[in-house]
Amino acid sequence: MSKIVSIHSFRGGTGKSNTCANLGTLMAMQGLRVGVVDTDIQSPGIHVLFGLEPEQMKFSLNDYLWGHCDIEQAAHDVTEKLGVRGPGTVLLIPSSIQAGQIARIIREGYDVGLLNDGFQRLIEELSLDVLLIDTHPGVGEETLLSIAISDALIIVMRPDQQDYQGTGVTVEIGRKLNVPLMTLLVNKVPTAFDFEEVRQRVETTFGCEVVAVLPHSDEMMMLASRGVFVVEFPDHPIAKSYREVVDRLMA
Amino acid sequence: MTAAPEASFEGSAAFERVRRELDGWVRSSSDRGVTPSVLLQLTDPLRATLRRLMRGGSMTFEELGNSLDLDERETEVIAELMVACGLLKTEELDRAGDVVYRIHFTKQHRPEAPVGYWQLLLEPDAAPADDQGTAEPDDT
Lengths: 251, 140
Fold this sequence. Notes:
The complex is a heterodimer of chains A (251) and B (140). Chain A has helices at 16-29, 46-49, 61-65, 79-82, 99-108, 112-125, 141-149, 161-176, 195-206, 218-223, 229-232, 237-250, and strands at residues 3-8, 33-38, 76-77, 89-93, 130-134, 152-157, 181-189, 209-215. By secondary structure, chain A is an alpha/beta fold. In chain A, helix 9 (195-206) links the parallel strand 7 (181-189) and strand 8 (209-215). In chain A, helix 1 (16-29) packs across helix 12. In chain B, strand 2 and strand 3 (99-103) form a beta hairpin. A 3-stranded antiparallel beta sheet of chain B has the order 1-3-2. Chain B has 6 helices and 3 strands. Chain B is 43% helix and 9% strand. Chain B is mainly alpha-helical and 140 residues long. Chain B has helices at residues 13-28, 38-41, 46-56, 61-68, 72-84, 115-122; strands at 59-60, 88-92, 99-103. Classes of the chains: A alpha/beta (251), B mainly alpha (140). The interface between A and B is medium-sized, with 28 and 28 residues.
């Protein structure tokens, strides 16, 4: 049975897309067929992490939503670009990075039912083990849809007062929608903090499992989205934490 | 908008609860479909049923009844009501008339924004419009 996992954050800049790219890559390294959908239509970016150039996007999620192609035609195999060897695969469905196309979809809207059908079709046609959905920050229709259909939801947050309030909103929505597995990932934590204390405080505040507390990382900053962290730094403690997150999701 | 069917039919407590919620929904909604935010406006078992429909795509009449915990007659009334108020739509499976139920999604509403803003983004070479009014009313 395929799993749908949504990676969400209430605010931008939390490291949501980075988390999504790293988890997807690790899953592929374990031999799984992984689909990654960028539903952050208004501010797409995960394609950069996977090394997919805009001119290489023959079709995007936008094209599918406008009826220009089938959803599987918008899937780009980025496994080789990642340098992942083995039977696993990462198939990326990017959103368009062209300003006019972003503006059009915001202005005209799109058929949310079509997006939902697309998720199901991706799983079936591409024989996916896992579908990862990189959502748009905040609470929008596509985010609600993603959360509603997910088997697991990872809410990414920083130890920041603005993130705390927003995360509470997302947790409440996740509960209302009965997501089977809802976890928090605390990201970019200053190394001066006591990580165990952060974990306990967040778990107590939201009554929700914290799946990982990840430190702010100079290596991650210096990588600057030019690649996927777990590929570039496989022995780094952050890579180990990401592996534990994958184990938790796939348990 | 069609009137609630079989308003006089009396069923189980579960049925009455669902019908009351749908009656309220009928008054406040259009019959042109819903977006996923409908999940936050309804309560279980309607919400859980719509969530299952989003994940699974469709339900047969029997599956719909099981999900709402209703008997056949009650399911008939509630299914008709859900279609009438734009929550669900039916799709014929075959010529025998067997149907499945799907969520009746509507196109996502577009935000209100100044016309000039969109013109500039959609036609980058165009001069900014003088008109700073809002976008024309949503036709969805």
